[in-house]
Amino acid sequence: MIRELHSGKYLVEVEASSGIPLIGCIAYGLIDRGTNVIQIRPTSLCPLSCIFCSTDAGPKSRRRLSEYIVELDYMVEVFKKLVKYKGARDIEAHIDTVGDPLTYPRLVDLVQELSSIKGVEVVSLQTHGALLNEKILDDLDEAGLSRINLSIDSLDPDKAKLLAGTKEYDVEKVKEMAEYIARSCKMDLLIAPVWVPGINDDDIPKLIEFALKIGAGKRWPPLGIQKYVPHRHGRKPKGVRSMSWREFYSRLRALERKYSVKLVLRPEDFGIKPMRRLPIPFKVGEKVRVKIVAPGWLKGEMLGVARGLAVTLVDARGLSIGSWVKARVIRTKDNILVARPMI
Ligand code: SF4
Protein backbone atom coordinates (compact mmCIF):
# COMPACT_ATOMS: atom_id res chain seq x y z
CA MET A 1 0.00 0.00 0.00
CA ILE A 2 1.27 3.48 -0.86
CA ARG A 3 0.19 6.36 1.39
CA GLU A 4 0.82 10.03 0.77
CA LEU A 5 2.10 11.74 3.94
CA HIS A 6 1.36 15.38 4.75
CA SER A 7 5.07 16.13 4.32
CA GLY A 8 4.48 15.45 0.62
CA LYS A 9 6.46 12.21 0.86
CA TYR A 10 5.14 8.68 0.42
CA LEU A 11 5.06 5.78 2.84
CA VAL A 12 5.32 2.50 0.96
CA GLU A 13 4.20 -0.57 2.90
CA VAL A 14 6.04 -3.45 1.31
CA GLU A 15 3.81 -6.49 1.75
CA ALA A 16 4.02 -9.94 0.17
CA SER A 17 0.87 -9.12 -1.81
CA SER A 18 2.39 -5.87 -3.19
CA GLY A 19 4.59 -7.68 -5.69
CA ILE A 20 7.54 -5.55 -4.54
CA PRO A 21 10.66 -7.74 -4.15
CA LEU A 22 12.80 -7.50 -1.00
CA ILE A 23 16.11 -7.81 -2.81
CA GLY A 24 17.48 -5.11 -5.09
CA CYS A 25 16.86 -1.78 -3.37
CA ILE A 26 19.23 -0.16 -0.87
CA ALA A 27 16.45 1.53 1.11
CA TYR A 28 14.60 -1.53 2.46
CA GLY A 29 14.60 -5.34 2.38
CA LEU A 30 17.63 -7.62 2.40
CA ILE A 31 21.21 -7.17 1.22
CA ASP A 32 23.65 -10.02 0.59
CA ARG A 33 27.23 -8.85 0.06
CA GLY A 34 28.69 -12.35 -0.26
CA THR A 35 29.52 -12.88 3.42
CA ASN A 36 27.81 -14.59 6.35
CA VAL A 37 26.26 -11.21 7.29
CA ILE A 38 22.81 -10.54 5.85
CA GLN A 39 21.68 -6.92 6.18
CA ILE A 40 18.03 -6.52 7.14
CA ARG A 41 16.26 -3.24 6.45
CA PRO A 42 12.68 -3.38 7.74
CA THR A 43 12.14 0.41 7.81
CA SER A 44 13.77 3.51 6.36
CA LEU A 45 12.32 5.96 8.91
CA CYS A 46 14.42 7.90 11.43
CA PRO A 47 13.55 10.39 14.20
CA LEU A 48 16.89 12.23 13.95
CA SER A 49 18.43 14.39 11.23
CA CYS A 50 22.16 13.97 11.92
CA ILE A 51 24.16 16.67 10.17
CA PHE A 52 26.55 14.08 8.69
CA CYS A 53 23.92 11.46 7.76
CA SER A 54 25.08 9.50 4.72
CA THR A 55 21.48 8.61 3.80
CA ASP A 56 19.87 12.04 4.39
CA ALA A 57 17.39 10.48 6.83
CA GLY A 58 14.89 12.00 9.21
CA PRO A 59 12.44 14.91 9.29
CA LYS A 60 14.95 17.34 7.73
CA SER A 61 15.59 15.13 4.71
CA ARG A 62 15.56 17.09 1.46
CA ARG A 63 16.31 14.35 -1.03
CA ARG A 64 13.92 11.59 -0.01
CA LEU A 65 10.68 10.96 -1.84
CA SER A 66 9.52 7.82 0.02
CA GLU A 67 9.95 5.88 3.22
CA TYR A 68 9.43 2.11 3.33
CA ILE A 69 8.14 -0.33 5.94
CA VAL A 70 8.32 -4.06 5.26
CA GLU A 71 5.70 -6.54 6.44
CA LEU A 72 7.21 -8.77 9.12
CA ASP A 73 6.13 -12.17 7.76
CA TYR A 74 7.27 -11.28 4.25
CA MET A 75 10.70 -10.23 5.52
CA VAL A 76 11.12 -13.39 7.59
CA GLU A 77 10.00 -15.67 4.75
CA VAL A 78 12.50 -14.23 2.25
CA PHE A 79 15.26 -14.07 4.88
CA LYS A 80 14.78 -17.78 5.67
CA LYS A 81 15.21 -18.67 1.99
CA LEU A 82 18.40 -16.62 1.84
CA VAL A 83 19.80 -18.28 4.97
CA LYS A 84 19.09 -21.69 3.46
CA TYR A 85 20.72 -20.68 0.17
CA LYS A 86 23.84 -19.65 2.08
CA GLY A 87 24.10 -23.03 3.80
CA ALA A 88 22.17 -22.33 7.04
CA ARG A 89 25.21 -21.89 9.26
CA ASP A 90 27.16 -19.07 10.96
CA ILE A 91 24.75 -16.37 9.77
CA GLU A 92 24.69 -12.91 11.34
CA ALA A 93 21.37 -11.12 10.84
CA HIS A 94 22.38 -7.45 10.95
CA ILE A 95 19.50 -4.98 11.19
CA ASP A 96 21.07 -1.76 9.96
CA THR A 97 18.69 0.32 7.75
CA VAL A 98 19.02 3.71 6.06
CA GLY A 99 17.18 5.16 9.07
CA ASP A 100 16.84 3.78 12.59
CA PRO A 101 15.52 0.22 13.18
CA LEU A 102 13.83 1.34 16.41
CA THR A 103 11.16 2.99 14.22
CA TYR A 104 10.00 -0.49 13.14
CA PRO A 105 6.82 -1.22 15.10
CA ARG A 106 7.47 -4.99 15.16
CA LEU A 107 11.19 -4.90 15.90
CA VAL A 108 10.98 -7.22 18.92
CA ASP A 109 8.97 -9.78 16.90
CA LEU A 110 11.49 -9.49 14.07
CA VAL A 111 14.41 -10.20 16.42
CA GLN A 112 12.49 -13.10 17.95
CA GLU A 113 11.84 -14.62 14.52
CA LEU A 114 15.39 -14.09 13.25
CA SER A 115 17.05 -15.51 16.34
CA SER A 116 15.01 -18.71 16.15
CA ILE A 117 15.98 -19.55 12.55
CA LYS A 118 18.34 -22.50 12.15
CA GLY A 119 21.78 -21.29 11.13
CA VAL A 120 21.43 -17.77 12.57
CA GLU A 121 24.13 -17.40 15.21
CA VAL A 122 24.06 -13.64 15.79
CA VAL A 123 21.34 -10.98 15.56
CA SER A 124 22.75 -7.46 15.74
CA LEU A 125 21.28 -4.00 15.38
CA GLN A 126 22.63 -0.54 14.51
CA THR A 127 20.98 2.48 16.16
CA HIS A 128 21.52 6.01 17.40
CA GLY A 129 19.39 5.02 20.39
CA ALA A 130 16.99 7.98 20.53
CA LEU A 131 13.99 5.65 20.86
CA LEU A 132 15.49 3.18 23.36
CA ASN A 133 14.04 2.60 26.80
CA GLU A 134 14.52 -0.11 29.42
CA LYS A 135 11.35 -1.99 28.44
CA ILE A 136 12.37 -2.23 24.76
CA LEU A 137 15.86 -3.31 25.78
CA ASP A 138 14.48 -6.03 28.07
CA ASP A 139 12.18 -7.24 25.27
CA LEU A 140 14.98 -7.25 22.68
CA ASP A 141 17.23 -9.08 25.12
CA GLU A 142 14.58 -11.70 25.73
CA ALA A 143 13.91 -12.00 21.98
CA GLY A 144 17.55 -12.97 21.40
CA LEU A 145 19.32 -9.81 20.26
CA SER A 146 23.07 -10.51 20.49
CA ARG A 147 24.52 -7.01 20.12
CA ILE A 148 23.57 -3.37 19.78
CA ASN A 149 25.92 -1.10 17.85
CA LEU A 150 25.01 2.16 19.55
CA SER A 151 26.17 5.37 17.90
CA ILE A 152 26.88 8.14 20.40
CA ASP A 153 28.81 10.94 18.73
CA SER A 154 29.38 13.26 21.70
CA LEU A 155 28.74 13.08 25.45
CA ASP A 156 28.21 16.84 25.58
CA PRO A 157 24.42 17.48 25.49
CA ASP A 158 24.61 20.59 23.28
CA LYS A 159 27.09 19.15 20.82
CA ALA A 160 25.11 15.90 20.69
CA LYS A 161 21.99 17.90 19.74
CA LEU A 162 23.96 19.77 17.08
CA LEU A 163 25.27 16.51 15.60
CA ALA A 164 21.84 14.83 15.75
CA GLY A 165 20.29 17.80 13.96
CA THR A 166 17.52 18.16 16.53
CA LYS A 167 17.04 19.73 19.94
CA GLU A 168 14.90 16.72 20.90
CA TYR A 169 17.93 14.44 21.11
CA ASP A 170 18.81 13.70 24.73
CA VAL A 171 22.26 12.13 25.01
CA GLU A 172 21.92 11.76 28.79
CA LYS A 173 19.07 9.31 28.23
CA VAL A 174 21.04 7.43 25.56
CA LYS A 175 24.00 7.19 27.97
CA GLU A 176 21.69 5.73 30.61
CA MET A 177 20.49 3.15 28.09
CA ALA A 178 24.09 2.26 27.22
CA GLU A 179 24.84 1.74 30.91
CA TYR A 180 21.68 -0.33 31.28
CA ILE A 181 22.68 -2.63 28.41
CA ALA A 182 26.18 -3.15 29.80
CA ARG A 183 24.93 -3.68 33.34
CA SER A 184 21.64 -5.56 33.00
CA CYS A 185 21.34 -7.20 29.58
CA LYS A 186 22.72 -10.44 28.12
CA MET A 187 23.30 -8.73 24.77
CA ASP A 188 26.61 -7.06 24.04
CA LEU A 189 27.16 -3.35 23.48
CA LEU A 190 29.44 -1.71 20.94
CA ILE A 191 29.75 2.08 21.07
CA ALA A 192 29.98 3.31 17.48
CA PRO A 193 30.58 7.07 17.20
CA VAL A 194 30.95 8.77 13.86
CA TRP A 195 34.13 10.88 13.96
CA VAL A 196 33.36 14.18 12.27
CA PRO A 197 36.68 16.07 12.08
CA GLY A 198 36.64 19.59 13.47
CA ILE A 199 33.40 18.90 15.36
CA ASN A 200 33.81 15.97 17.74
CA ASP A 201 37.60 15.34 17.81
CA ASP A 202 37.74 16.04 21.56
CA ASP A 203 34.75 13.81 22.20
CA ILE A 204 36.29 10.64 20.77
CA PRO A 205 38.70 10.02 23.71
CA LYS A 206 35.85 10.72 26.15
CA LEU A 207 33.64 8.21 24.33
CA ILE A 208 36.41 5.60 24.53
CA GLU A 209 36.70 6.23 28.29
CA PHE A 210 32.92 5.99 28.63
CA ALA A 211 32.70 2.67 26.73
CA LEU A 212 35.50 1.16 28.81
CA LYS A 213 34.09 2.49 32.08
CA ILE A 214 30.60 1.02 31.58
CA GLY A 215 31.93 -2.36 30.37
CA ALA A 216 30.94 -2.37 26.69
CA GLY A 217 32.39 -5.19 24.59
CA LYS A 218 31.83 -8.42 26.50
CA ARG A 219 32.06 -10.67 23.43
CA TRP A 220 33.01 -8.28 20.61
CA PRO A 221 35.19 -5.14 20.61
CA PRO A 222 33.76 -2.35 22.80
CA LEU A 223 34.12 0.38 20.17
CA GLY A 224 33.58 0.70 16.45
CA ILE A 225 34.63 4.26 15.61
CA GLN A 226 33.39 5.20 12.15
CA LYS A 227 35.00 7.68 9.81
CA TYR A 228 32.77 10.45 8.46
CA VAL A 229 32.59 9.93 4.70
CA PRO A 230 30.71 12.47 2.56
CA HIS A 231 28.17 10.71 0.33
CA ARG A 232 26.64 11.99 -2.87
CA HIS A 233 23.11 11.78 -1.49
CA GLY A 234 24.03 12.42 2.16
CA ARG A 235 24.24 15.54 4.34
CA LYS A 236 27.56 17.32 4.47
CA PRO A 237 28.26 19.54 7.49
CA LYS A 238 29.60 22.94 6.45
CA GLY A 239 33.35 23.42 6.74
CA VAL A 240 34.10 19.76 7.54
CA ARG A 241 36.88 18.14 5.56
CA SER A 242 36.90 14.39 5.79
CA MET A 243 40.04 12.61 7.02
CA SER A 244 41.99 10.39 4.66
CA TRP A 245 41.84 6.71 5.61
CA ARG A 246 45.55 6.87 6.36
CA GLU A 247 45.08 9.73 8.83
CA PHE A 248 42.01 8.06 10.36
CA TYR A 249 43.82 4.78 11.04
CA SER A 250 46.92 6.53 12.31
CA ARG A 251 44.82 8.52 14.81
CA LEU A 252 42.99 5.34 15.85
CA ARG A 253 46.33 3.59 16.41
CA ALA A 254 47.51 6.45 18.62
CA LEU A 255 44.31 6.12 20.67
CA GLU A 256 44.76 2.33 20.81
CA ARG A 257 48.18 2.84 22.39
CA LYS A 258 46.84 5.40 24.85
CA TYR A 259 43.85 3.34 26.02
CA SER A 260 45.10 -0.22 25.37
CA VAL A 261 41.95 -1.06 23.44
CA LYS A 262 41.42 -2.41 19.93
CA LEU A 263 40.04 0.32 17.66
CA VAL A 264 41.25 -0.67 14.19
CA LEU A 265 38.77 -3.41 13.47
CA ARG A 266 38.84 -6.21 10.93
CA PRO A 267 35.98 -8.40 9.63
CA GLU A 268 37.46 -11.32 11.64
CA ASP A 269 36.81 -9.39 14.88
CA PHE A 270 33.11 -9.94 14.18
CA GLY A 271 33.41 -13.41 12.68
CA ILE A 272 32.66 -12.05 9.19
CA LYS A 273 33.76 -14.37 6.40
CA PRO A 274 33.04 -14.87 2.69
CA MET A 275 29.98 -17.01 1.96
CA ARG A 276 28.01 -18.11 -1.12
CA ARG A 277 26.26 -15.09 -2.62
CA LEU A 278 23.08 -14.76 -4.63
CA PRO A 279 23.62 -14.63 -8.39
CA ILE A 280 23.27 -11.20 -10.03
CA PRO A 281 21.03 -11.67 -13.08
CA PHE A 282 21.99 -8.36 -14.75
CA LYS A 283 25.04 -6.80 -16.37
CA VAL A 284 25.94 -3.13 -16.34
CA GLY A 285 25.01 -1.63 -19.72
CA GLU A 286 22.33 -4.23 -20.41
CA LYS A 287 18.82 -3.17 -21.54
CA VAL A 288 15.93 -4.44 -19.39
CA ARG A 289 12.18 -4.07 -19.27
CA VAL A 290 11.11 -2.79 -15.86
CA LYS A 291 7.62 -2.61 -14.41
CA ILE A 292 7.14 0.44 -12.19
CA VAL A 293 5.55 -0.52 -8.86
CA ALA A 294 6.10 2.36 -6.41
CA PRO A 295 7.64 5.81 -5.97
CA GLY A 296 11.41 5.69 -5.51
CA TRP A 297 13.41 6.34 -2.37
CA LEU A 298 14.88 9.66 -3.55
CA LYS A 299 13.33 12.48 -5.54
CA GLY A 300 13.38 11.77 -9.26
CA GLU A 301 13.43 8.00 -8.71
CA MET A 302 10.83 5.27 -9.19
CA LEU A 303 10.91 1.71 -7.89
CA GLY A 304 10.52 -1.03 -10.46
CA VAL A 305 10.68 -4.81 -10.79
CA ALA A 306 12.66 -6.84 -13.30
CA ARG A 307 13.55 -10.56 -13.22
CA GLY A 308 12.07 -10.88 -9.74
CA LEU A 309 14.25 -8.18 -8.18
CA ALA A 310 13.65 -4.56 -7.20
CA VAL A 311 15.30 -2.00 -9.48
CA THR A 312 15.73 1.69 -8.69
CA LEU A 313 15.05 3.82 -11.74
CA VAL A 314 16.90 7.15 -11.65
CA ASP A 315 15.93 10.17 -13.79
CA ALA A 316 12.43 8.70 -13.77
CA ARG A 317 10.28 11.79 -13.16
CA GLY A 318 6.93 11.66 -14.92
CA LEU A 319 6.77 7.86 -15.17
CA SER A 320 3.69 6.28 -13.67
CA ILE A 321 3.11 3.29 -11.44
CA GLY A 322 1.88 0.25 -13.37
CA SER A 323 3.67 1.22 -16.59
CA TRP A 324 6.55 -0.64 -18.25
CA VAL A 325 9.75 1.07 -19.29
CA LYS A 326 12.92 0.08 -21.11
CA ALA A 327 15.98 0.97 -19.04
CA ARG A 328 19.73 0.58 -19.13
CA VAL A 329 21.34 -1.03 -16.07
CA ILE A 330 23.95 1.26 -14.47
CA ARG A 331 24.72 -0.59 -11.21
CA THR A 332 24.56 -4.23 -10.10
CA LYS A 333 27.05 -4.53 -7.21
CA ASP A 334 25.74 -6.73 -4.37
CA ASN A 335 22.41 -6.95 -6.22
CA ILE A 336 21.66 -3.31 -5.44
CA LEU A 337 20.20 -2.56 -8.83
CA VAL A 338 19.98 0.83 -10.51
CA ALA A 339 18.85 1.55 -14.07
CA ARG A 340 18.11 4.63 -16.16
CA PRO A 341 15.03 4.76 -18.43
CA MET A 342 15.83 4.96 -22.17
CA ILE A 343 13.36 7.67 -23.09
S1 SF4 B 1 22.90 8.98 10.94
FE1 SF4 B 1 21.43 7.39 11.52
S2 SF4 B 1 20.29 8.28 13.23
FE2 SF4 B 1 21.32 9.97 12.20
S3 SF4 B 1 19.80 10.77 10.74
FE3 SF4 B 1 21.07 9.26 9.65
S4 SF4 B 1 19.97 7.34 9.83
FE4 SF4 B 1 19.12 8.73 11.38
How would you portray this structure in words?
By secondary structure, the protein is of the alpha/beta class. The protein folds into two domains: 33-270, TIM Barrel, CATH 3.20.20.70; 287-341, Nucleic acid-binding proteins (OB fold (Dihydrolipoamide Acetyltransferase, E2P)), CATH 2.40.50.140. Helix content is 24%, strand content 23%. The chain has helices spanning 72-85, 107-115, 134-143, 157-164, 171-184, 203-214, 245-259, and strands at 2-4, 10-14, 29-32, 37-41, 66-70, 91-95, 120-127, 147-150, 188-191, 194-195, 226-227, 287-295, 302-306, 309-313, 324-331, 338-341. The strands form four sheets. The protein has a six-stranded mixed β-sheet with strand order 3-4-6-7-8-9. Strands 12-13-14-16-15 form a five-stranded mixed beta barrel. It has a three-stranded mixed β-sheet with strand order 1-2-5. Helix 1 packs parallel to helix 2 (107-115). The longest helix is centred in the C-terminal third of the chain and has 15 residues, at 245-259. The chain binds iron/sulfur cluster. Residues 46, 48-50, 53, 55, 57-58, 99-100, 128 line the site of iron/sulfur cluster. The site of iron/sulfur cluster has 11 residues, from loops.
Q: Show unreliable segments.
A: none
CATH architecture of the largest domain: Alpha-Beta Barrel
Give the ordered list of helices and strands.
Answer: EEEEEHEHEHEHHEEHEHEEEEE
Average pLDDT figure: 97
Structural category: alpha/beta
Measured between the Cα atoms of the first and last residue, the distance is 28 Å
Can you count the helices? Answer: 7
Name of the CATH homologous superfamily of the largest domain: Aldolase class I
Strand content: 15-25%
User: Any idea of the CATH class of the largest domain?
Assistant: Alpha Beta
General shape: globular
- How many discrete domains? 2
Spatial strand order of the main sheet:
3-4-6-7-8-9
Radius of gyration, whole Å: 20 Å
Question: Residue share in helices?
Answer: 10-25%
The CATH topology of the largest domain comes to TIM Barrel
DSSP strand count = 16
Bound molecules: iron/sulfur cluster
Biggest pleated-sheet summary:
6 strands, mixed
